[in-house]
Structure formats: structure tokens, C-alpha cells
Amino acid sequence: MKAKDIMEQVKDHLSPDDTIRDAVNKMRVVKRDDGIVGVKGMIVLDREGNLVGMVSVKDILKAIIPFYMTMTELGEFTWEGMLSEMTKKVADKKVEEIMVKDVITVPEDAPLMECADFIVKHNLQRVPVVDREKRVVGIIYVRDLYNAIVKVLLNDKEVENI
Amino acid sequence: MTNEAAAATQPFVMNASFWTATVIFLLAYALIVSEKVHKTVVALFGAALMLVLKILEQKEAFHVEEFGVDWNVIFLLISMMVIINLMKPTGFFEYIAIKSAKLGKGEPMRIMTIFALVTAVLSALLDNVTTVLLLAPVTLLIADALEVDPVPFLIAEALASNIGGTATLIGDPPNIMIASKAKLDFISFIYNLTPAIIVIMAAFLFVLKLIFGKRLRVKPELRQRILEMDEREAIKDPLMLKKSLFVLAIVITGFVLHGMLGYEPATVALFGAGLLLLLSGTHEPHHVLAEVEWPTIFFFMGLFIIIGGVVKVGLIKWMSIEVLALTHGNMFATSMLIMWFSAFASAFVDNIPYVATMNPLIIDMANQIWPHLQGIKLLHNPELMPLWWSLALGACLGGNGTAIGASANVIVVGLAERAGRKITFIRFMAYGMPVMILTVLLSTVYVWLRYYVLKI
């Protein structure tokens, strides 16, 4: 099996000009292949449809935490309501400013082991699959790879059982 | 200057080596000012040229004090950086900052005053950049909690850090360089500069209150946010903190006594760094050592060699003759010229290369006025001493003039921009330049009154 055999369709994407508020809304309403509503990360495409970035729930959290808190240990010195104050402050920030720009992708004919290796090595939740022209044709989620593993293990068991 | 070095200085002729060295020196300084190439790269390449073109012998650059690397400065800087790097993770600085904000009872003006004072004191004992880098994040947090503009706080801290750094031998790199070249000890700096800085700091705080006193008001419920913080939670490693404070106490005591005990400041600092590394029980010193500001250290090394080259060919001597001609040998006029010129020069260019050039210039000047004196008798000539203090006051306080005058300024401007509050060059100057002029004016009165009227 190859990457393209287990990947899921791209349902929606963000554009660099979207605000964080737009992004949160798009990610909340999109329907997945398995029928569940909402995703925890989305690719960012420019007007020509080129992949320019990726935004995950964690990137949005990072955007809300003030940068000075990452410079030193100040977690104990926050106050009630600070999270919502900071959230309101960054609501209109552009996706462009918070997205991860160096997106790791896999080619559509990559073997599954390559995908698994990438996902673990770079600590990813999802990896876009691209064709020869570097256009995004799908996305592989950790759960897709996991499902492939489950299939192998359960099939083996059935063989043993027989 | 030792006899050996005096003999090695070429007779003052404008020959090929004179011009080669002068061109390397001027090009290097122009490149450093232009910021087209990183200053450390310029300094190292310029130093290499001085050696390759045989302006200086390698032995002179590495082993002769007058022409080469001042290892006293290098090891003092490295050792202090190591001590601070080991101390940082303990949470000590966050503790101090939160405690200060609480002492200010959440009142913005009180907090600004206390932060400025704390910054000044810490900058006098540690380096300015570290102090500002450690206090600024807490400042931004406090400003967010009180819903006030952090910019006045950040600018006040940068200015206070440059003022405080002027007070001691270890406070600011120019002082470290002056101390090493002029063989002045820690106590001399305390005795001669600290009184001036106390007066200047009081005036600075008064000005802060005048400018911001009425503007900063916050609601009582926001003040409560500060009062509810528990500074003790900042301490991450109480054991290491105790060890750090123990070593810091030894180092400061060592600085106070180094002249009496016959140790160089670098020896004291190196002992502290070694001891704290040992006490930390680390088996992996790589991280702590890697965090030393190596680009700054190498900048110093390259610069010392470049200066060594122009000292050897006589450029600095020629400059000193010109300065003396300008002031007709009047020492008060010379010290005022040095102070004010240093202030404006340091406001726009890095004060480190500036002071590195001025040090040998002052010594050459002294050589011409008192040709029969040598060594300490020359360097510590009572008539020469006010020049060293004028250089220190001018070069350190001058850093306040513009956003690029001192590293602490560059850092707060950068942090403010990241916080979404851009401080333009003009806005910084609107605060910095008047403060610089006020503080240098006070220094002028101080030097005049103390060394030329009261003569104490």
C-alpha cells in the first residue's frame, strides 16, 4: 500500500489572510471522512492553491500565550480571566502569522513506512500528501496509519486462529 | 606603558605600515558602524589582517598587554556570564521582579520606580543585557495585568540599566576595559563613580515621576491581580539558588578586596565561575558554556588586536597629540572634551570599540605630558585620574542617547516590537537624549566640583 491508498480527501483549507477567528470556525464545522464534525488542524493554501502552511490547535494555543511567557518561567503569575483576555487580543491576527511554514509532506506513492517514520520523527498529527507538481491531493492522519496497523495485527490473529 | 612596549612602539613615522594599519582600522570601524557585516566577523578579519600583513607579530597580539588581547577583560566577561547562566534557571530574577511589583502595591508609578532602581542595582553587579532580558518579560506581564502601556516601563528600565552599569567596575564593558588598562580596582570605581551615579539616579527617578506620574492610573481590581501573585513560586531550585547566592557573595567580596589582596578582577570572577560550576554538580557543562555570549567575546578579542596594530604604528599617539593641541594641555578642558565627545559618540556607535580606542589614547597623552613617569605613577597620576572617570561617565551614560546607543536599548526595542508596541528611533530618542544630556550635565558638575574645585 502507498500513501494515496490510505489518505483522506481534503475537505477544506485555510487561506493566509483568514483571521484566527475564521480559522477556528472553519476547523469547527468541517466534516471528516468518518462523519465526525471538526478537525484539529488544517492546511493553508494560497490563491493559486499552493501549500504555504499548516495550522493546528496547538499553533492557535501558542498564538494566545504572550511571547514573554515563553522567555522565562512565569506560568505561576497569571490571573483569572487572562486566557480569555489574550484570546480576544489575538482574534484578528492573520493565519499567516501563526501558521507553521515549513510543512513536511509525503509524495503520493510513498510507502506507508515512510509516512510512519515522518510522523513519528517530526511529532506530527497529520501530513499532507502531494503529487509530482507539489499539489496537495490528500492528508494522512495518525489514525489512518494506526488503522493500517490494526488491520495487519487483527488479520494475523485470524490466520493464527484458523 | 612598560619599557618593553615603549621600545617596541615604532618611532612616529607615517610609513607604509602606518597607513596599512590606519586603513584596516578605519575600514573595520566603518563596517562595524554600517552594520553591513556582523561586527564580530569584521573584528576577527581585521585582526587577522593586522597579523598577516605583519603590522603586529602574533606574539604581540596574544601575549603583549599593550598591543594585544586583554585577557583580563575576556576572562572577567566569560566568568560573569557563566555565573549568571548557572543562576538563571533558579528563578531568582523572576522572584526579585515579582517581589518588586508587589512592593509597588500594584501602583504603576511605584512599580516603575522600584523596577528602575532594581534594574540599576542589578546592572551595577551583573551585565546590563542580562538584567534587562530577565526583567523585561516580567515587566510585560505586569503591564498586561494592569492593562497599561509597557513601553514607558521598558524604556525606563533600559535607561536605568545604563545608568546603574556606570557605577561599578563590572557594571558595563567600558568600565571593565578602563579598569584593566588603567589598573584601577573595584573600590576606586565605587569611591569615584558610585556617588555620581547615586545623584544621577535620584535625578532620573525624579524625571520619571515628572513625566509619567500623572499619566499612569489603574483600576483597583487590576492592582489586585499583582497583589495575589506569590513570588515564592518563582523559585525553581532552592538548593542551587543558595549555592549561587553564596558564590555571588564570595565574588562581590572578592571584587571589593581584590586590590588589597593583589588579585585581578578576572581572577576573582574565574574563581566564582569555577566554584559555582563545581557546586552545581553538573556532568554536562557544555550547555552552560555554550550559552556564553561568544560573539561578544570574539568581538573583544578581534578589536583588541586591531587597536594594538594602530597603537604600534603610532596612529593613536598622533591622535593624542591632536587632542592635546585642541585643549592646549588644559586637563579640565581635556576631561570635559573626553566626557562630552564620549557621550555623543557612544549614543550613536558601539561604546566598546570607542573605549578600546580611547584607552591607549589617554595613556599616550599622559606619556607626552609626563614623559619621565611610568607604570602606575603615570596611570594613576592625580591629574590624569579625572580623565578616566570622565571617559567612563561619558561612554556609559552616552549609551542612553538613542535606541542603538547600548545593547540594553536594542533589546527593549526588540521586545516591545514583539509585544506589538513599536518604539521608533525618534520615540526612544525623545526620552533617551534628554536623559543622556541631563546625566552628563550632572557628571560634568560632579567631575568639576570633586576633582577641580574640592580636589578630593
Strand order of the largest sheet of chain A: 3-4-5
* Portion in beta strands of chain B: under 5%
Radius of gyration of chain B over all CA atoms, rounded: 22 Å
Total count of helical runs of at least 4 residues of chain A: 8
CATH architecture descriptor text of chain A: Roll
- How far apart the termini of chain A lie comes to 25 Å
Q: Quick check: average pLDDT of chain A? A: 90
Name the biggest interface. A-B, 14 and 23 residues
Give the amount of beta strand of chain A, in percent: 5-15%
Q: Uncertain segments of chain A of ≥5 residues (pLDDT<50)?
A: none
- The number of helical segments of chain B is 24
Poorly predicted tracts of residues of chain B: 1-8
DSSP, total strands of chain A: 5
Q: How many domains would you count in the coordinates of chain A?
A: 1
Order of SSEs of chain A, N→C? HHEEHHHHEHEEH
**What is the name of the CATH class of chain A?**
Alpha Beta
Overall body shape of chain A: globular
| Largest beta-sheet characterization of chain B | none
Multimer state: heterodimer
Write structural notes for this entry.
The complex is a heterodimer of chains A (162) and B (456). With 162 residues, chain A is α+β, with helices and mostly antiparallel strands. Chain A has one domain: Roll (CBS-domain), CATH 3.10.580.10. In chain A, 43% of the residues lie in helices and 15% in strands. Chain A has eight helices and five strands, in the order H-H-E-E-H-H-H-H-E-H-E-E-H. A three-stranded mixed beta sheet of chain A has the order 3-4-5. In chain A, strands 1-2 form a two-stranded antiparallel ribbon. Chain A starts with a helix and ends with a helix. In chain A, 22% of the residues are buried. With 456 residues, chain B is mainly alpha-helical. Chain B is built from 24 helices and no strands. Chain B has helices at 3-8, 16-34, 39-52, 58-63, 71-87, 92-103, 108-125, 128-146, 151-165, 173-182, 186-192, 194-212, 220-227, 238-261, 265-280, 286-290, 294-313, 315-327, 331-348, 351-369, 375-379, 385-398, 407-418, 425-453. The two termini of chain B are 26 Å apart. The interface between A and B is medium-sized, with 14 and 23 residues.
